[in-house]
Amino acid sequence: MRDYTRLMSLFSKPSASATEWVHAHCDGGSRGNPGPSGYGAVLTDPEDNTLAELSEYLGIRTNNYAEYSGLLAVLAWTLEHGPRRLKVVSDSELMVKQVQGKYKVNSPDLKPLWQEARNRIAQLEAFEISHALRHKNKAADALANQAMDKGTRRASTAGPVESLPLRPRPTAAPLASPPKPERVVLEPTEPRSRPTAPTMLRGFTRDGSVHLLGGATLPDGIFVKIIRE
Question: Domain span at residue 90?
Answer without folding.
Answer: 6-157
